[in-house]
Amino acid sequence: MGMLSGKVAMITGAADGIGRAAVTVFAREGALVLACDIDGAGAEAAAAAVRADGGQALASAMDVSDLSQVRVGVELALTSWGSLDVAFNNAGITGPMTSLVDYPDEWFERVVAVNVRGTWNCLREQIPAMLQSGSGAIVNASSGAGAVGAPGIGIYAATKHAILGLTKVAALENATAGVRVNAVLPGIIDTNQPRNLTHDIPGAMDAFKSAMPIGRLGRADEVAEAAAWLCSDRASLVTGVGVAVDGGYLAQ
Ligand SMILES: NC(=O)c1ccc[n+]([C@@H]2O[C@H](COP(=O)([O-])OP(=O)(O)OC[C@H]3O[C@@H](n4cnc5c(N)ncnc54)[C@H](O)[C@@H]3O)[C@@H](O)[C@H]2O)c1
């Protein structure tokens, strides 16, 4: 029996990186996975890989900044499988690397829309669905940059702080109702996100590696494992916290 056996799980940002790894880990732990991504073909590929392995998965093309698209995804889970039990709200973007004073307005709007509004959109569709069945667990993707300042990615850092705020409020508002809400704070994880962010800065990935006390970048599956545990009943007393999954980054 996996630790998510029989649970219906919604994962956003499921086409790539941490979300893609989470699709694999959650399915391995027995979840029925709804893979959601703005990249609909990528989400379908993730779901198809689970089905090819004998698991159950569906895909939903979804821009999390659009409430109506999030609603369609949650309804797909409810109509297909009868409940929504757990969710990993992982979709997020960094925007460009530049100082706060030079940050472009259009990127401010987009990063806030995807990271903050997107997380809120997911919470406000998922929580009522979980309350219908009387229990649930949600994990939001914050960041090390959600706990300390991150020069050059200030708006991203602000949104990741906001995600911790949403997490704490959602946890407190639903604590007695059986729905737990937590966050993961990944350190620097070897996905396309940090690579794309620093593609024009020579040696940036090596500098990231040196910033990690563990001496290496994190792997997407290591964050997915933490999210799966937080979503499972094994974490039954854990709610309202941000769990660092960062090789010691925030201990410095
Ligand atoms: N990689 C890191 O070092 C790191 C560190 C800390 C936090 N995080 C956070 O973890 C999460 C996943 O990061 P990653 O490294 O896997 O990123 P990634 O860029 O590798 O993958 C992100 C996925 O989200 C999808 N996505 C983007 N915008 C979307 C939207 N509006 N709606 C739905 N899907 C959307 C993308 O298509 C992609 O499949 C993000 O929230 C990120 O901020 C990552």
From TrEMBL:
Q: Which residues form a coiled coil?
A: none
- Alphabetical list of Pfam families matching this protein: adh_short_C2 (PF13561)
| GO MF terms, alphabetically ordered | oxidoreductase activity
Q: Which UniProt keywords apply?
A: Oxidoreductase
Q: Output the superkingdom of the source species.
A: Bacteria
Family label: Belongs to the short-chain dehydrogenases/reductases (SDR) family.
What's the protein here called? Answer: NAD(P)-dependent dehydrogenase (Short-subunit alcohol dehydrogenase family)
Organism of origin: Nocardioides ginsengisegetis
